[in-house]
Write a structure and sequence with these properties.
Blueprint (H helix, E strand, L loop, with lengths): L1 E5 L11 H6 L1 H14 L3 H7 L2 H5 L1 H19 L7 E4 L3 H8 L5 H21 L2 E7 L3 H10 L5 E8 L2 E7 H13 L4 E4 L12 H12 L10 E2 L6 E2 L2 H10 L7 H10 L4 E4 L5 H9 L4 E4 L3
Parallel strand pairs: 1-2, 1-9, 9-10
Antiparallel strand pairs: 3-5, 3-6, 4-5, 7-8
Helix pairs in contact: 2-5, 2-7, 5-6, 5-7, 6-7, 7-10, 10-11
Length: 294
């Protein structure tokens, strides 16, 4: 069985999607449609913008989404998933590729999500940190022990790699405690705010309104969602989980484990970068993991 997985924020790079634009008329049409929907030429930023330009949330999220979704579209009949999943933002890419959402609606939701998250970040200065080399349970206990600040597990990326999210001082305290507990690394990340934490509540409320006013239909196959790590096919349940995603942790380790347990023999990463392939190998080194190609 084939599992198709879609990357999230952080996978962007200058020049992303340019080969698709140049090689495929269908891809070019979709990119130009995206420029019209967004009201600015995101293709210019994707193809020749600086690293700093691409790091703006309003650019990053639609850029990664477009690269992933357009690649899936250009693959045509060779895109035949038995199961799909997407890391954080990538869940929206997975839903469009899986035909639960239209291209246009998916892009509008991703842009609404990016702008809502940007506002939440500006209202609550906050950050995230990667914790390497500790058991998940130890990281969870340390987060709980910091009572006066917001500090929560945000991304369960692979065994021994968990990203935490919270207030600036909370993350600083947590990193010191993680190192004292034996973490190999406790690295603050260059991100705009505390994604997948209670500090994103205002963004969750804003996005909920947009999602509830968007048409979702039954897809080609189940999607393993971030919030539960379980396969879901019912469009209404998909919506509920997608709304919860902004303030809940991404259970990526559990998603990989569940997909493998349910019969996934190969993982195809659709979009920029190779981060997800590396995470698959950390869960099970014997599983085949490759990048999608035209």
């Amino acid at each position: 069985m084939k599992a198709y997985v879609f990357p999230g924020q952080g996978a962007q790079f200058t020049g992303m999607g340019q080969d698709l634009y140049e090689k495929s008329t269908h891809a070019r049409d979709l990119f130009e449609k995206a420029n019209d929907i967004l009201g600015f030429k995101i293709t210019e930023v994707m193809f020749s913008g600086s690293e700093e330009d691409l790091r703006q949330t309003r650019v990053t999220q639609p850029a990664v989404f477009l690269h992933s979704v357009i690649l899936a579209r250009v693959m045509g009949d060779s895109f035949r998933p038995d199961m799909v999943a997407g890391h954080s933002l990538g869940e929206f890419s997975a839903l469009v590729a899986n035909k639960v959402l239209s291209f246009e609606d998916g892009l509008k939701l991703v842009y609404a999500r990016a702008m809502a998250m940007q506002k939440a970040c500006e209202a609550n200065p906050s950050t995230m940190a990667a914790i390497l080399g500790l058991d998940d349970t130890v990281v969870e206990q340390i987060c709980k022990s910091i009572a006066d600040e917001v500090v929560v597990p945000a991304n369960y990326n692979s065994p021994g790699q968990l990203v935490i999210s919270g207030s600036l001082s909370g993350i600083e305290i947590a990193c010191e405690k993680m190192k004292a507990a034996g973490a190999k690394r406790a690295l603050p990340l260059k991100v705009g705010g505390a994604f997948h934490s209670p500090l994103m509540e205002s963004a969750r409320v804003e996005l909920a309104h947009a999602i509830n006013n968007t048409k979702f239909v039954k897809g080609l196959c189940p999607i393993y969602q971030n919030v539960t790590a379980q396969p879901v096919a019912d469009p209404e349940i998909i919506k509920v989980n997608l709304i919860s995603q902004l303030t809940a942790p991404v259970k990526w380790t559990q998603i990989m484990q569940n997909m493998i347990a349910d019969g996934a023999k190969s993982f195809i990463e659709v979009g920029p970068g190779t981060v997800l392939q590396g995470l698959v190998k950390k869960v099970n080194k014997d599983i085949d993991a490759v990048s999608a190609s035209l």
